[in-house]
Amino acid sequence: MLLKLALWQDVQEYLEKRIDLIIPVGSTEQHGPSGPLGTDLILAEELANDLGEERHSMVSPPIAFGVSQVHGAFPGTISLKPATLLAIVTDAIESLYQQGFRRFLLVNAHHGSKATLQAACAQVHAQLPDSRCLSVQWWELPEVRSVLMEMFGAREGHHATPGELSMVRRRARCSTCRRWTASSRCRSWSPGRRRTSVNGIPTGASGRTRRSPAAWRATASSSPLRGGWWKCTAASSRIPDQRSTFIKRPMSRPRSTRPSMIEP
Q1: Helix axes of 162-171 and 142-151: crossing angle, nearest 10 degrees
Q2: Which of 38, 98, 149, 161 has the fewest CB atoms within 10 Å, i.e. is most exposed?
Q3: E-only strand ranges, the chain
């Protein structure tokens, strides 16, 4: 059941039987030359909806913005401060708690928000002792990591990866995906090379951004969150963070020589 499509009477009836709620958390930020800005948002909402349908759980509207300062130089990126995201999540959960919800699952699709969401769950537990809040990162689930490593290996990269873009292509089927797939700009990216910049300007991608159609379909064939949704983070906590070896550098773009539209 989608909260955004429900009547308040529907929610009241649901609360007479259930106290759990799924909250998708995404971001609006650049995802290289092959992925839409809403990649994380699309994944979070689609995975949460799949899980809600399987478990007959209610799914809230998604949180569309995350902690994305590192991508701020790319046009279209919308970033929140960690304190802002923390306040949004905790205030929303507190509001829902007052209505009768007690179990909250945060389906997160943006790595930059991971620490903030974990802090939000800790704060919820401190303020609302009889509640339960859990933050799940879909890419850390053991089943997902094994498939991604088997198919892409080190070429999976760290951002705008073949794995996440394949699921967006499969699920969103948006005009943006079709436009990038058909464009010469996308076809010019060699399958065997890492193109993290073009003419000295960072593209936002880390790792290979293209795979064969068969690989796209295989990666996107099933939902990563199916089965054991309250236990998934306990298992994923044993997986070493692949990003610990990635040197994070702030991404920047050359300052434009064109005059600003807001300058006097």
Answers
A1: 100
A2: 98
A3: 20-25, 58-59, 103-108, 132-137, 197-198, 201-202
Helix residue spans in 198-257 (DSSP H): 213-219, 232-236
The H-assigned helical ranges of 108-161 are 114-127, 142-151
CA 39 – CA 175 distance, rounded (Å): 13
Domain ranges (residues) in the chain: 17-141+153-190+200-218
What's the CATH superfamily of 17-141+153-190+200-218?
Creatininase (3.40.50.10310)
Across the chain, which distance is largest between two alpha carbons, in Å? 61
> In this predicted structure, what is the pLDDT of residue 166?
85
Angle between helices 162-171 and 39-55 in degrees, nearest 10: 70
In 3-state terms, the chain is what percent helix, strand and coil (to 5)? 45, 15, 40
End-to-end C-alpha distance for the chain, whole angstroms: 51
**What's the pLDDT score for residue 104?**
98
